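Annotated sample (chain length 213).
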Amino acid sequence: MSDSESSYRAAIASLMATGVSSEEIFQSYIPAVSAYLGELWVSDRASFVDVTVGASRLQGLFRDKGGQASAQWSDRSIPLGQSVLMVVPQYEQHALGAFVAADNLRQHGLWVHMAIGLTREELAELSGTRRFAMIGISVATRNSVEKTIELIDYLRSNANYMPPIVIGGRAVEADPKVVSKTGADHAVRTAREAIEKCGLSSVAEALPFSGAI
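Output written by the structure step:
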């Protein structure tokens, strides 16, 4: 949350200099920092602006990582022939969990497309133009459940093609039965669980996961 645009990258460089791997940073440290930002916001120890700046920088790290690794993951993903659409709905303000989940899905060899802030009409058109093997929807809070019900109902009624719909996020952790409310096919807590429930192929035998969709 520093005013300096380079200080958070310097902190990461210092971590790596002590032997912390890039994988640990993305799988453990960044989700932990994200949770800490949330705690600061809830306890009134950080302003909305500070938390927004911190979250956007964390998301930027995942975007950078995705760009650097695109060739590597496309080489591994194309033979599987499976693409996933990761949706962060318009009504969701928390996108970091979806970036963490997308990164984990890519490490399983899947090709992940991010859909952030699209209208339900745009999502229906997008799902009909590409043969996605799964649609993942990030549901961060209980307040989002009602709107997710409406979104899923619209997609099922208007999309020409609809793969299995999976929901994940803090709302799932708070209420495991949320899937029955939303009309999704599955509610999951990990990327591997999503892959297994949708019957998708994976190139990873055992991948630790510390984030949620």
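Annotation: The mean pLDDT is 79.
Annotation: Strands lie at 83-88, 111-116, 134-138, 165-168, 186-188.
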